[in-house]
Amino acid sequence: MKIGDLEIGDDVIAHPLLGRAVVIERDGVPLTAMSVVDWERPREIPVVAAPAKLPAGAGARVINAIAERAASAGVAALRYAGPYPTPALYRALLRSFRASAGEDVFCANVMARAATLARDEVAVDFAPAPHRRVDHAHGWSELRDGVERVSVAGNSFDAGTGVARIVGGRCEIWFGDRCYAHVATVDGAGAIVDGPHAIPACTSQVVGKSFPVPLRAGIAELVADLVAAPLGADAHRLLVSRPLTWADLGARVAAARDDTFSVHAALWDAIAPLGMPRLAAAIAEALAPVVAATVIAGATESTG
């Protein structure tokens, strides 16, 4: 099976994590393995052994291909039966499926499932609703109910109110109620008609400064309340134990690298004038998905 520049093998192998699996290759080089899919009539969302080894955007293409095949075969819904029902997987699935329950339900037992390498079904139905991908010179666009996602020069913009968002066809970066940068504009068919433009360097006075330990501890408490309940204690511990700094992160609001968490300094400029409670809440909201992903990555590495 050829999907983009990936080749999904036909030969079934025995995999220590997945059991019956097939190999995913790129240019003849094995990248990882995936549980077996019935491509004529997919009934289960497959488990990928090491999704981080796939090229950017490749996992979403595989998911969308499964949704397309399932829709064509009249399959009403698929379920995930793997050990890693993560927030990242749930959000990726929403680009090609409609879910019967929210992220909190899907991710409720993620730590326990990772620890036991669970393979029973997660009781959330995903009804096929594939998007249409339109490639352009700087990435691609995903169309479903209009333009829902645009990838430009490695940065992704989604319809909605996130930091990197699509506003009237404009791919913009927002912090608080301020538009920080306009990166590109796409038309209704997903083609770029303006840009891409470089994201300006952040000149905030707090770039490079570290958060004092008491403030980091307070933010850790807020983050623990925002992540899925099973992750709360580990998220709090991790954030308290690692440095937290202000940085210029381009299109991202928060990041984890080299055992350090960072928050975009533009958040300070946009929200600090509104008061420290508002700023602390905004920082926690920015950090929550990054810290949660770091916690989950640690758990999957220990069991993989």
Which stretches are poorly predicted, pLDDT < 50 over at least 5 residues?
Answer: none
- Profile the largest sheet: 8 strands, mixed
Shape: globular
**Mean of pLDDT:** 92
Order of H and E elements: EEEEEEHEHEHHEEEEEEEEEHHEEEHH
**How far apart lie the N and C ends?**
26 Å
Strand order of the largest sheet: 10-11-12-13-14-15-16-17
- Helix-strand makeup class: alpha+beta
Binned, the helix content reads: 25-40%
Question: What is the number of strand segments?
Answer: 20
The gyration radius over C-alpha positions equals 20 Å
Number of helices: 8
Summarize the SSE layout with pairings.
Elements: E1 2-3, E2 6-8, E3 13-15, E4 19-26, E5 29-35, E6 44-45, H1 58-72, E7 79-80, H2 87-94, E8 97-99, H3 103-106, H4 110-116, E9 126-128, E10 132-136, E11 139-144, E12 146-152, E13 155-159, E14 164-167, E15 170-175, E16 178-186, E17 192-194, H5 213-226, H6 232-241, E18 244-247, E19 254-257, E20 260-264, H7 266-271, H8 276-303
Helix pairs in contact: 4-8, 5-6, 5-8, 6-8
Task: Provide an overview of this structure.
By secondary structure, the protein is of the alpha+beta class. 30% of the residues lie in helices and 30% in strands. It contains eight helices and 20 strands. A hairpin with a 2-residue loop joins strand 12 and strand 13.
List the keywords.
304 residues; alpha+beta; 20 strands; globular
Summary of the model, kept short:
The chain has 304 residues and is α+β, with helices and mostly antiparallel strands. It has helices at 58-72, 87-94, 103-106, 110-116, 213-226, 232-241, 266-271, 276-303, and strands spanning 2-3, 6-8, 13-15, 19-26, 29-35, 44-45, 79-80, 97-99, 126-128, 132-136, 139-144, 146-152, 155-159, 164-167, 170-175, 178-186, 192-194, 244-247, 254-257, 260-264.
